[in-house]
Amino acid sequence: MRLRLILHGKAAGDARVRAAITAVRGDRHEVEVRVTYEAGDATRFAREATEAEGLDAIVAGGGDGTVNEVFAAAFLANPPPGLSFGVLPLGTANDFAHSTGIPVDDLTAALRLVTTTPAVPIDVGLLNGRPFVNLVSGGFGSRVTVETDPDLKRRLGGFAYVVTGVARFAEIASSRGLFRAENFEWEGSFLALAIGNGRQAGGGIPLCPAARLDDGALDLMILPDVPPEARFDVFTQLLSQGAAAIQNLQVTTRSTWIEYHSDEDLYVNLDGEPIRTRKFRAECRPRALPVHLGQRDLLCDPAVPG
Asked: What is the pTM of this model?
């Protein structure tokens, strides 16, 4: 196979990356490397890769933000049939890699996965036309994930988000908006929302635990507002244990599209990219990208390679 690895610049000197590349080249596969230096490089490299002749796979080397940037840019460039995608997990959280069984502690195994397993087609979500492969979060929780100190994340992993959330407890405020989806409408005040193509974000927090990567739909989770005296406990449970801990409070649905409208700005985290908006439309593009996964628990039919 001929692979093109789009590598986050911070990982260029990582000995594990070099060892993984050497090992896969030793397996008689070609590995071309493009290293990012400034903002926009991953997008540009991904677009260029979709136009390269004879390329078999594009591998995103970095964290969840890099994965989404590479996959999104390639998706919008309309990749040719036969071009597949892989992940070399080099971030702090590596939520997409963790949830799909891509080895995060063995980079050689992660890179070899691209050459030894068939790619399976997964859905791609679009939020106001911007692609995402994993999960979109909104509300105070998305501010916590965006504003958590990177060094704290390196030291504490996913628990860093809980620490940040507790430290900023006084800033917790609800948002208000109207949600619409297929056979669904809900309006009110809420503390957090998640739209999942995948299941987890924020260092392993399962916000949409029933989501499937290939079901042609997106999962919506809304955490309605609670009395001020209960906010601390509820929010801590969500950040530490995921949506299952607040099952009796959450509002959920599954739909091929989801719309949101509000008169006030909402903080939204689009697979690591922070944005503010007052309205959005999320749509699902079914089985739009073939990706090499380590396990298929997030697929409707795990036994079928696609």
From this structure: 0.88
